[in-house]
Amino acid sequence: MTSRRRPGRVAVATGFAVLAAAVACSSEGPAPGSSEPPSATSLTPTPDPTPGGSPAPAQSPLTIAVAGDIHFEGVLRDRLEEPATALSPATASLAAADLAIVNLETSVGAGGRPEPGKRYPFQAPPAAFTALAEAGIDVATMANNHALDFGREPLPGTFAAIEDARAADPPLAVVGIGRDARQAFRPARTEVGGSIVATIGATVADADPTADPTGAWAATADSPGTADAIDPARLLRAVKRADRSADVVVVYMHWGVQGDRCPSDAQRSLAADLVETGADIVVGSHTHRLQGDGRLGRGYVAYGLGNYAWYTQSSEATSVTGVLTLTVQPAPSPAGRARVTDAGWEPARIGTDGLPSPVPGTTAAGFDADLAALRACAGFAP
Questions:
Q1: Are 234 and 241 in contact (CB under 8 A)?
Q2: What's the rounded Cα separation, in Å, for the pair 346 and 36?
Q3: Beta strands 9-13; 281-285: pairing state
Q4: CA separation for the pair 225, 77 (Å, rounded)
């Protein structure tokens, strides 16, 4: 089996590797505020002042690739019979980056019963983690409205599989779910060329369980579940803690209104709070279609990454997808902030096999035009 791991990148700690990272993250402070070439957007970074006036040694830029929802339902399920190649035909752009992050939109394990009120319950075997890792993906968030589709009964097996995935070669870190709230909100910490990248996953579910049962899935001080951010205070504290020790902080959100092409007021407000608190990159999914991306204050936000490996396409909008690769200059000092200096999309379309394929040049031109419209309705500059 050929590993697709990139040299110079080391998993430091995750929500399931307590060690010293858990000690460093144990204190909580107050939260502020309640093959075609990719389409590229060049960004001009603003240098951070260095305390004392002396320049800090420059860290090497790194690349972070993000994509949207992945699951293994329908036509994708049989691909798990060969997990080493289940997704690899479609993930070259993810594997090429220094760090690749996606949303795993399914429960993982065996047993349990579909949650009452769930129209589309998803469950995949632990081989799903192997498939992600072998495809070049480093971090998967499970903070979403399918992570507990079969209730809490399968969770012991889920957590055991997560621990196995972290220790495997190649490894995969899983965030956004845990045996308690502290673990669910704990970031994956990855060393890339001497820089530490902290990745946090969180979901904003409906607080009314009659409307969406996932509101009852939130991890608490003494029960397992997902990192729920209906009340964002805990999430903001997690971001603030991560910012103290990491060179780059990434937050992957499950949020928004399904089918909407423009981010909601709630998305935009939370994104601003996350950036203000210390997140350098905020990305999200759940709407099953792309939403706008661009600079927000000192951070970079991609509101909606759409589907990526998905069993059915209900419309043109849900089949259009891509990989967003961000070039990041890490923080020059503990008091500084990382900067996204370049953003490039590789546009793709999901086929009948459930996998994305790069689109030809003429279609890519239309993708660029759509991106411009999406950025406008998200409030970003062209």
A1: no
A2: 7
A3: unpaired
A4: 25
Q: Is the peptide bond before 334 cis (omega within 30 degrees of 0)?
A: no
Instruction: List residues bridging with 154 in a β-sheet.
Output: none
Burial state string for 106-122 with b = 16 or more CB within 10 A and e = fewer than 16: bbbbeebeebeebeebb
Domain assignment of residue 46, yes or no: no
pLDDT in the model for residue 363: 79
CATH number (domain holding residue 104): 3.60.21.10
Name the token pair of 297: 């204050």
Burial of 1 (0-12, 13-18, 19+ CB in 10 A): exposed
How much is the pLDDT for 13? 62
283 touches 267 (CB < 8 A): no
Containing structural domain, residue 218 = 9-20+59-377
pLDDT digits (tens, 9 = 90+) for 7-33: 556 666 665 554 333 333 333 444 444
Cβ count near 223 (within 10 Å): 13
- Would you say residue 28 lies in a domain? no
CA distances from 380 to 34, 42, 295, 296 (A): 23, 14, 7, 8
Flag residues of the chain having pLDDT under 50. Answer: 1-4, 18-53
Q: Can you give the C-alpha Rg of the chain in angstroms?
A: 19
Per the CB < 8 A criterion, the answer to whether 154 and 110 are in contact is yes
Each residue's pLDDT tens digit, 221-269: 999 999 999 999 999 999 999 999 999 999 999 999 999 999 999 999 9
Report how far residue 144's alpha carbon sits from residue 212's, in angstroms, rounded to the nearest whole number.
12
Rounded to whole angstroms, the Cα distance separating 271 from 292 reads: 13
Provide the token pair at 78. Answer: 């049989």
Domain tally for the chain? 1
Domain contains 54: no
Determine the Cα–Cα distance for residues 156 and 77; give it in Å rounded to an integer: 22
* Torsion (CA) 11, 137, 227, 304 in degrees, nearest 10: 140
How many other CB atoms sit within 10 Å of the CB of residue 127? 18
Q: Are 164 and 170 in contact (CB under 8 A)?
A: no
